[in-house]
Design brief:
Blueprint (H helix, E strand, L loop, with lengths): L4 H23 L7 H18 L8
Length: 60
C-alpha cells in the first residue's frame, strides 16, 4: 500500500507524541509500563460491554 508523504509524516509524528506521553507517565510513576494503559482500557471496555448487555434474567 502506497501512502502519500503527508500521511507518513503525520503517522510518525503521532507515534513519537504517544511515546513521549507514555514515557512521561512512566517517569512520574503513573503507570508501571506502556502496556498498562492498554490493559486498563481493555478491561474497562469489556466490563462496560458485559454490564450493558446482560439479559434481565442474569441480573440479580
Amino acid at each position: 500500500m502506497v501512502r502519500d508523504s503527508h500521511a507518513i509524516k503525520t503517522h510518525i509524528f503521532c507515534s513519537l507524541q504517544v511515546f513521549v506521553r507514555l514515557e512521561k507517565m512512566r517517569s512520574e510513576n503513573r503507570i508501571s509500563n506502556w502496556y498498562e494503559v492498554q490493559r486498563n482500557l481493555f478491561t474497562k471496555v469489556i466490563c462496560e460491554y458485559v454490564l450493558n448487555n446482560l439479559s434481565p434474567a442474569c441480573v440479580v
